[in-house]
Write a structure and sequence with these properties.
Pfam families: RINT1_TIP1. This is RAD50 interactor 1. One of its GO terms (biological process) is endoplasmic reticulum to Golgi vesicle-mediated transport. It comes from Gadus morhua (Atlantic cod). The relative contact order is 0.03. Helix content is about 70%, strand content about 0%. The chain contains 27 helices and no strands. The chain is an all-alpha fold.
Length: about 775
């Protein structure tokens, strides 16, 4: 049985990797001899898997052999059937290929015949095609000519209809025909028939002018009956005419008819859009208002053009005031008479605003004509700018002229005029600064006797300078262009920096005597300017300018010119920075430097007065129990008086915020001086330590108690030194031993820091306290 199993091992090699076990040919000795070592191992694994290691399972070998032989026979039958079917399929494929090749050859022959016939046919039909194309082009030309003639005929028909309507006084029908002609004109804008467009535009202009002139003539006569225009304010209401109802009906009819002509008027009017330099384009005036403004236009040009005495370059307020008076005098008529008619026509037109626009165009024309003649006269130019600003303010406020519509301020914003404006502003501001700094009362305060008002104690020169900047702000606040506003802002920052430099120069002149009143006035001036600029940085107007800086910076950066760095732009956009940030930093530096110089001078005086106190006999002073009452050391009196006098002087001369900085700085320096030059310089017995503590806590600290509730917090080194020096002998010994030993590992007692904190010592380090304890003279055994 073992031999049979071994003999059939080679037949089962492929059954482990395929669904069916495919045995090799048993009769081929070469195949059996070709088994390599890998195949032999595979067969052994298969037998081991099928039969296992149990000898009792060998009885299943015959059954396994029969199964393998059955699969072999089935596979042989499949191979034989496949080999017999393959020739039939190959033969069928070859037959199909030959048939396809024959079909292709036949089709190629037919294609060649058809191509030859088609070429011959095209050659024969080519003359016919050329003739047909000529006929088509001729038909197209005739068709376009017919449409051209139809358009001409339609124009003639509309023209004849308008003529007939005007002859029969059918104005509404004539207006409808003009509107139809205007619609046709708009439709021909994209056409290449230039002559037709010209003929239609000329025809439209002809009939439009005739109708407009007729309606305007009737409208002017009617306005005369209604006492239009009102040149001066009416003293008393006019009595209504007898035929008031008829006049009102006629007014309604004429205004409605003129409004119906608006579309054609906008189309053909050469002045449909304003062409004045510097003034943004706006829609043309409505026809009724154009007619109503005519008499006022005649009056304006009569008085303010030519050689009339009223036409004076030095008196722009004459014509600007006249325009405002006409607006005010006739606004009631526009609201009461014209606006209801406009509302009934369905037009979105404000009668009062239209009147202001019509009159404003006269002022724009006059200002555009006069400005170039004033660029070389600073006085007249400044006067004109002032009057224009005042006019613009009254126009927007009193007459409610919309901010979206252009006024007069667009005209001075042309490059040449704006540059002149900036130059004049700079020149006059610098002249004003020179004048006020050279004045006698430049460094005095006009409110010094009024404590409630004079909180900042700003000198007159600083107040005048900031008032000057505020006036400049008010002048350019109303400008309609943010780019122009930013140029004025740059001018203001330039002026502030110039004034800071002037303050620095004057401060250096006064630096030899920092205790002089002028030095304090310079310090107050720097603080006042810094305070006002900080307030401006939070103002809505300057925040809007800050956003404009970021926006314009981004736009110009896209054009290749980075205006702001990424950090600066980010700070401005997030409102962390401000437009005056760099100036505030410079002013703070100046303020800090001046306060430092001032305190250095005060401390120099204090040190001189404290020499006797510093060298006092601290080792030999009597103890507290030997004295009836404690009193201030006689050697400390000059120092205390010096500190008191300087504090009072600084409080009188410096504003509140600066004085707070000054006394706190003085306290800090006094604390360091007393600790370094008095405490650490001497040795103290019990009486000396008690006297030092009394001098400090009962005399020096109360000097600063007028300005804060706990002045000892500003003298922590001195206060804690007095605590250490005044300890009892026992407490001092325990503390010294603890500080010398320290808190070692595993120590159960408190740490040096904890012990010091219990005594009220927080600022001094353990090493410093040990030094102070060594300054005590009264130790046991000494």
């Amino acid at each position: 049985m073992d031999a049979a199993v071994t003999q059939d091992d080679g037949k089962m090699q492929k059954s482990t990797n395929k669904p069916n076990f495919v045995p090799e040919n048993n009769e081929d000795p070469a195949s059996e001899s070709g088994h390599d070592e890998t195949q032999h191992d595979f067969v052994l694994d298969f037998v081991q898997k099928e039969l296992g290691g149990d000898l009792k399972s060998l009885k299943n070998v015959a059954e396994l052999l029969e199964k393998v032989r059955a699969e072999k026979e089935m596979l042989e039958e499949q191979v034989l059937s496949a080999s017999s079917a393959s020739p039939l399929k190959v033969s069928a494929a070859l037959d199909a290929a030959e048939e396809a090749q024959a079909t292709m050859t036949s089709l190629l022959k037919r294609q060649a015949v058809l191509s030859k016939g088609l070429d011959q046919h095209l050659q024969e039909a080519e003359p016919w095609v050329d003739e047909l194309c000529q006929n088509i082009d001729h038909v197209d030309t005739m068709e376009r000519s017919m449409r051209y003639m139809q358009c001409l005929q339609h124009i003639e028909e509309l023209s004849d209809r308008i003529q007939q309507c005007l002859m029969t006084n059918s104005v509404w029908e004539a207006i409808d025909s003009v509107a139809a002609m205007a619609t046709l004109d708009a439709g021909l804008q994209a056409s290449s028939c230039l002559h037709l467009q010209g003929f239609l535009r000329a025809t439209l202009r002809f009939w439009h002018k005739i109708i407009k002139d007729r309606l305007a003539s009737d409208f002017e006569e009617l306005l005369t009956l209604l006492h239009w225009p009102s040149i001066s304010p009416p003293m008393q209401p006019l009595a209504p005419p007898a035929n008031a109802q008829e006049i009102s009906s006629q007014l309604d009819l004429l205004v409605s008819q003129l409004m119906a002509l608006q579309t054609s008027d906008d189309l053909i009017s050469e002045k449909a859009l304003t062409t004045l330099p510097g003034v943004p384009q706006a829609s043309p005036l409505s026809l009724p208002v154009q007619v109503m403004v005519l008499p006022l236009t005649k009056r304006f040009r009569y008085h303010f053009t030519g050689n009339r005495t009223t036409n004076s370059l030095g008196k722009p307020e004459w014509y600007l005031t006249q325009i405002l008076m006409w607006m005010g005098n006739n606004s009631a008529f526009m609201d009461d008479k014209i606006q209801p008619i406009l509302d009934r026509t369905g037009s979105n037109v404000n009668a009062r605003v239209e009147l202001c626009r019509g009159l404003l165009s006269l002022a724009q024309e006059k200002l555009t004509h006069d400005l170039p003649r004033l660029l070389y006269d600073d006085t007249l130019f400044c006067h004109l700018v002032d009057e224009v600003l005042q006019f613009e303010k009254e126009l927007r406020s009193t007459h409610s002229y919309p901010a979206a519509l252009p006024g007069l301020l667009h005209i001075p914003l042309e490059d040449a005029t704006l540059q002149k404006w900036l130059t004049v502003e700079r020149k006059m501001a610098l002249e004003k600064v020179d004048s006020m700094l050279s004045g006698e009362g430049a460094w005095s305060c006009q409110y010094r006797d009024i404590s409630d008002v004079d909180e900042l104690k700003a000198p007159d020169c600083a107040e005048t300078f900031m008032t000057l900047l505020l006036v400049i702000t008010d002048r350019y606040r109303a400008l309609p262009c943010s780019r122009a506003q930013l140029k004025f802002l740059d001018l203001q920052r330039e002026l502030v920096d110039d004034f800071r430099i002037r303050l620095t120069q004057v401060m250096k002149e006064e630096s030899r005597s920092p205790l002089s009143p002028r030095y304090s006035a310079i310090l107050n001036a720097a603080n006042y300017i810094s305070t006002v600029l900080a307030d401006w940085a939070d103002n809505v107007f300057f925040l809007q300018l800050q956003q404009a800086v970021v926006s314009l910076g981004e736009v110009e950066a896209e054009g290749g010119r980075p205006v702001l760095g990424p950090m600066e732009a980010g700070r401005l956009a997030s409102l962390e920075g401000s437009l005056f940030e760099s100036l505030l930093a410079l002013l703070d530096r100046l303020r800090g430097d001046m306060i430092g110089r001032l305190l250095d001078t005060v401390m120099k005086d204090v040190r001189e007065k404290a020499q006797l106190y510093r060298q006092d006999r601290w080792l030999s002073l009597p103890s507290q129990c030997d004295q009836a009452t404690m009193s201030l050391s006689s050697s400390a009196c000059p120092m205390m008086l010096c500190v008191r006098d300087h504090l009072l002087t600084l409080q009188q001369r410096l504003c509140g915020p600066l004085f707070q900085m000054a006394w706190q700085g003085l306290a800090d320096r006094l604390n360091s001086f007393l600790y370094q030059d008095v405490v650490l310089y001497n040795h103290f017995n019990e009486g000396g330590a008690a006297q030092l503590q009394f001098d400090m806590t009962r005399n020096l600290f109360p000097l600063f108690g007028h300005y804060c509730k706990r002045p000892e917090n500003f003298f922590k080194h001195v206060k804690e030194a007095c605590i250490v020096l005044s300890l009892s002998i026992g407490s001092a010994l325990l503390l010294r031993d603890l500080l010398r030993e320290g808190a070692g590992p595993g120590a159960g007692g408190p740490s040096p820091e904890q012990a010091l904190n219990e005594l009220g010592v927080y600022r001094l380090a353990p090493g410093d306290v040990l030094i102070l304890l060594n300054l005590r003279a009264s130790w046991p055994g000494q």
